[in-house]
Design brief:
33% of the residues lie in helices and 27% in strands. By secondary structure, the chain is α+β, with helices and mostly antiparallel strands.
Amino acid sequence: MKIIGLLAFFSIPAFAGSVFWAPANPPRARYRIEARVSADASRLDGSETISFTNNTSRPIGRVAFLFSGNELRVRVRGESANRIAGVKHEALFELPREVPPRAGVELAVEWVISHEALKDGEGGATWGWYPRLWWGFQTLDDYRLVVHAPSALTLLVAGRRPDTMVQAPDTRALGMFVGKGFQTASADVSGVLVTAAFKPKGAECAHLLLSTAVDAIRYYKEQFGLYPHNSLTIIPGGDTPVGGYPVATAIVAIHGQERMKEKPDDWWRWITAHEIGHMYWSEHVLAQGPDSLNWLMIGLGIHADQKYRRARGIKDAGELWKNYVQGVQKGYDTTMDLTEQQQDAVQWDLNNIVIHGKSSALMNALESAIGTKTFDAVYRRCLVEYASKRLGWRDFQRVAEQESGQDLDWFFEQWVRSPAYADYKAADQACSNGSCTARVEKRGTMYMPVTVAARFEDGTEQRAVTERLSDEEIVGFRSKSPLKAVVLEPDAAVVLAETPSPAQHKLLDRIEALPWSDESLDLYQQANAAKLTDEDAWVKLAMVLYDRQHYSEALSAFAVVGSSGQPGLRFMGLVWQGHVLDLIGKRPQAVEKYEAALKVAGTPQMRHDQYQITIDRKWVEERLKTPFTR
């Protein structure tokens, strides 16, 4: 549900006098709100008082609001403030008189929002339901509120129905959920009220999210010493299970809850813990700049959910650094320190590859470089020192340098301000008289200390770390047992991104732009010869080959997909191998592939709208009875 409307204010010209300016550390505001929602939720009107003290040495004559509604009026001691014309995105008001330094002010605000009436089963959340002071960046404020609504509506603010006074301290943006035909379930964990809103079809998933949230909050409190809010509300997002997002302070949306079976339970547990991580980073510690979810906040939040995943044994979910590897392999410039204009100009998936993927890889690499104990000290210190303050990446670097006692320019310049990537190879392994060596070569553009694991036939393992300045280094180990393998970065702490050759880059570009034509046969032969490893490219190539009825080549391409380490891709590749084997009359082999697909963990599902089929376990079980036909 979107609460939007056309702003209709009386405006005045801007004459010489006060201009809008933002304090470096804006005053904390105290909101007291009373609002009413109509029976069909088509109208919300309210009044609020906003009080703050000008804690600067300069008078404040203009204030700006974030608000998307129909009517907005502001008064100070009964006198009207006037909206300044020509400001499109915020509502800028001239106060009747300036607020002097160290003086307080109370703004009396009234507003109305109108939108389409809710139908049964509709609902949604927003933080734009009330006027909020805006200084150009994020701030935390304190709220007390009452919202009156008919009992037929599900209405939640700060985890509860706000028909009696609700308090929400330390809040960046106060979210509201309004729904019709929804149910709720709640639980308490150490004084934190956790509430899930859901429709009957999504009840099973909602209860899993609720129990996971309780466990995750308890875990995070043990790890970090706090959970920053007195509530958490979980609401349905979009229809497809593709993740979630933080709607506002202490309220998160999880997509696709009514299609729970399309993802394994561990995936739902991960995404819940992931979204709760945002409550620490972006809602407790604030982002520097206007974007509340920049790469630093995302990366620090992912590091929290990674600790939870490891503690709870959650696998095959949340490994977002793999998106970064794919971006490097496609030749993208993954520089992180970008202006808004530079980000807007990017033509590929910056959000998944850099903001989520590379930020996750950066945190793991930094932990590897300075040690887990030191990294944890950095993490906790930032949570304490930057509570309700803005944290930038240079601030984060400064804290990391202080805690580690190291200069870390070499690390942050490579990771943040360049597209450099780490790629190392182990070669020339040899053993003699219990002494084993391996040569480690730098092949990428980034210098990093790399963990080398030597694995021996007797099951033992020894580890060493290379010198970060080395282009080439001989690493030695001693063991009476024969050397079985040398593995670089066995825990993927430093992500190694092997890049395709220039010829492979051209091949990937051609496959990505591939039309549904017979060029697929030539590209398949080139991909085989080049030993292409990009799984997305193999998926597309396999489907095009199938569509053009090049069954032998399609079978081989689907076999590559079916060997993927990702359960969803592995399931897809096995099922489609079965399809092709059915089409060429090899029924026994097709059955083997279907049976192998049913052994893949979780409940994977894929839709092929072009063929009007949805492939899931039920589909595969039917294929065991009836061969696939086109």
